[in-house]
Each structure stands twice: as C-alpha cells, then as structure tokens.
Design brief:
This protein is mostly helical. It is 53% helix and 5% strand. It contains 6 helices and 3 strands. It has a 3-stranded parallel sheet. Strand 2 (51-53), helix 2 and strand 3 (74-76) form a beta-alpha-beta unit. Helix 4 packs across helix 5 and helix 5 (104-129) packs across helix 6 (133-157). The chain is flat, with a radius of gyration of 20 Å.
C-alpha cells in the first residue's frame, strides 16, 4: 500500500477477484467495512459466508438483510459490530466528567463487559422473538428508551 497506493499486486496474494464474483467467494465470515448499501437484493443471494460482521455503517439494504436471513446467514449488525469506538468515547466522557481516570486495562475490561452484555441482550431477544439480530437490536433500544421515558415521567409526577 505504501509503495503503490493499492493492495493490488501485493506479493503472495491471489489473483484479483472480478467485482461481480466478489460476493460469492467461499468464506466463513464476511466483514463489509467500507461503504453503505453494498449488499443488495441483487447480490445477497450469492453470499456464501455463514456470518457477516457489519464493519461499515449500513453495508446491507433491508431487503438484502431479509434474503440473508432466509438463507441462514447470521448478520451481526453495524450497531453492535462496530460500536466499540463510540462505547470507549462514552467511557472517556464519563472519566472526564467525573475527573477520575481508569487505566487502559480498566477501560478495555469495561468495553469488553459492555459489548458482551449488549450482544447477549440482543441475542436473547433475537432467539425469544425469532427475529434478526438487527431487529432485536432495535427492540432492545426502543425498550430501553421507553423504560427511560417512563422513569422520567414517574419522577416528574412525584
């Protein structure tokens, strides 16, 4: 990359994959991590990966998500798969606001716990309601917003 500005021609790599063949490469995990809406109803049926980890924001269209689910592909949605950075930003904000600071080890432990707990909650809702992880993430988020709203209303009324 430093020498040519591209990974094309990298020693030890396989031949370049034609764009129309990219989505049907045999692999276990696919991580679309660059652009939005790259997985569409036109190419979702070609995907051979069993798991997709959405590194980009919104790399699959809603229609593609339906196709992937019908084909048994587990899609870990962007809102959980790439949430580590924003989660650590929150931890940093809490530190600054509180004027006390954790070690990198402590921050990593907090991040791990937060992400594991978030994924477990989403996974459980997906299993209980037989919905995709994306839908489960929205269910969990909406439930938490409604609970917080209810708590605020109760405190205002008291």
């Amino acid at each position: 990359m430093a020498q040519t500005g591209s990974v094309v021609g990298f020693a030890g790599r396989e031949d370049r994959i034609a764009p129309e063949r990219f989505w049907n490469v045999d692999c276990d995990i696919l991580i679309p991590a660059a652009l939005e809406q790259q997985i569409t109803n036109d190419n979702a049926g070609q995907i051979r990966a069993r798991i997709i980890l959405e590194g980009a924001n919104g790399p699959a269209t809603p229609e593609a998500g339906d196709i992937l689910r019908e084909n048994g592909v587990l899609v870990v949605p962007d809102v959980i798969a790439n949430a580590g950075g924003v989660t650590v930003s929150y931890v940093e904000w809490v530190q600054d606001f509180s004027s006390f600071f954790w070690s990198e080890e402590d921050i990593n432990a907090r991040l791990t716990r937060i992400m594991r707990d978030a994924f477990a909650a989403i996974w459980q809702v997906a299993q209980d309601k037989d919905v995709s992880l994306r839908t489960a993430a929205f269910v969990v988020a909406c439930t938490r917003v409604l609970q917080a709203r209810g708590a605020r209303l109760v405190s205002v009324m008291n």
